[in-house]
Amino acid sequence: MRISVIGASECCPTIYNEAMALGRLLAKEGFLIVCGGRGGVMEAVAQGAAMVGGTTIGILPGRDVKEANRYITYPIATGLGEMRNFLVVLNGDIVVAVSGEYGTLSEIALAKKIDRPVIALGRWKEIKGVIPAKDPRDVIRIIKKIKENLNRS
Fold first, then answer.
1. What is the domain count for the chain?
2. Dihedrals phi, psi of 137, to nearest 5 degrees
């Protein structure tokens, strides 16, 4: 199962550490992580995954795979700029939003438009249809519950 993690391209140490913990937990559970491949939350989640041997795909806005942060396993250059946000959410079975600004908000909207479940860690919990999570462990619990429900249908 692929989990798209979206969020702030620049973040404070608290959010960075939370995203890194999320990356570790997702990788330990065997999930493939899809993200925008650059800094902030994207780097943190990829770093967390790398710490435990996880796999990450970074879907980059530019044309050069060297734009990816050093923790991305498979960088994908698109040359699409911010329009690559759709590819980030499209390639995840579930989307997890960690903090962020308008770019993250656009990804949440795109995810909801294509019926992807969206989990919010931190900001964005008030958006209709977004599932709030208390912490990274709660995100994992929610993902497992969604996965279980998907397997039943």
1. 1
2. -65, -35
